[in-house]
Specification:
5-stranded parallel sheet; 4-stranded mixed sheet; about 45% helix; about 25% strand; binds adenosine-5'-diphosphate; binds guanosine-5'-monophosphate
């Protein structure tokens, strides 16, 4: 069983979702892990597709029953990856990408040393703010919380295996492909 997990983090609005989508279109043999969250679905998001949407009570019960490989509170909501889900995907032979925050990424690395941690950086903090606002998915107070988290995330990124700057989108996708291909070849 392939035990390498590719964990991708980056400040909210940096474009990780966009980079990962581009990567998956070119690399359909990879699967994006579906996380659990207590946040409200955005328009167009569906349960079991983008996230497993849980109530705070359900999430709390999963924590108490040690069901998460990792979990974190991010900008006022809880997010986590179920251990059983990851094991099932790996047993099915899937190559998994986890798109999670830096707190979760560092927990994964502790419990799963084969995990490869990749951080997507913005060209500048100003670009990050522009992208986050340009997405029009969050209200002002949520944007402020996410920009504050962004500074802490950049500090935690120092412990990551790779950093990729998402300046030109196609270049960032290509760099991600190069990193993952190299790691697959080393496995
Ligand atoms: P994240 O998943 O990191 O929160 P998204 O993928 O939702 O971020 O991207 C946030 C916004 O930035 C989106 O509107 C997206 O189209 C835009 N974006 C992503 N990558 C780039 C890029 N390289 N240059 C300019 N805008 C980008
Ligand atoms: P969003 O609300 O924009 O979908 O995600 C907010 C943040 O939560 C992003 O940084 C995203 O990577 C992170 N996230 C999503 N799923 C998980 C998860 O399962 N665990 C952790 N720790 N973070 C997650």
């Amino acid at each position: 069983m392939n035990k390498k997990l590719y964990v991708i983090s980056g400040s909210s609005g940096v474009g990780k979702g966009t980079v990962i989508k581009g990567f998956l279109e070119k690399n359909p043999h990879f699967t994006l892990s579906i996380s659990c969250t207590t946040r409200t679905p955005r328009p167009g998001e569906a349960n079991g597709v983008n996230y497993f949407f849980l109530t705070k009570k359900e999430f709390q019960e999963c924590i108490e029953q040690d069901k998460f490989l990792e979990w974190a509170e991010f900008a006022g909501n809880f997010y986590g990856t179920k251990q059983k889900y990851i094991h099932q995907c790996l047993e099915e032979g899937k190559n998994l990408i986890l798109e999670i925050d830096t707190q979760g990424a560092l927990q994964v690395k502790k419990r799963w040393p084969e995990a490869v941690l990749i951080f997507i950086c913005p060209p500048s903090f100003e670009d990050l703010e522009k992208r986050l606002r340009g997405r029009h998915t969050e209200d002002e107070s949520t944007i402020q919380k996410r920009l504050n988290e962004a500074k802490v995330e950049l500090e935690r990124a120092e412990s990551f295996d790779y950093k990729i700057v998402n300046d030109d989108l196609e270049k960032a996708i290509k760099t991600l492909e190069d990193v993952i291909n190299k790691e697959m070849a080393d496995a």
